[in-house]
Here is the input.
Amino acid sequence: MRKTIEIQLEKKILKVSTLPIGKYALLLKQIKELPKHLSEVDNISQEQLLQKLPFLIATALPDVIGIVVVATDLEKTEAEECSLEEITDIILAIIDVNNFKGIFEKAKKALALPSKQKTS
Here is the structure.
């Protein structure tokens, strides 16, 4: 059974569930654009972050909406109607139910394993 989190939106309850591998691949394609926006917030103060927030939201919004649409059953227009708090809750639920941190740690461990060499 897939892990699911329910989020109360203004107009409905949204179920965010673990993604099947095909949707996961689509999500990764959608996520690839975010680093170019987030690199602008490296090593800045909270005050500077707050000053840049409107610009970051404006430039990253299409990518964030795309992530929400791929990872949930919301249509694009529905996602665009969500508040900042709702979008944040949805993104956090996507991260939680899909265990991105755990998968990343497993991948790091697998890549760190020494390859078995054949001895003759």
About this structure: The chain has six helices and two strands. The CA atoms of residues 96 and 102 lie 10 Å apart.
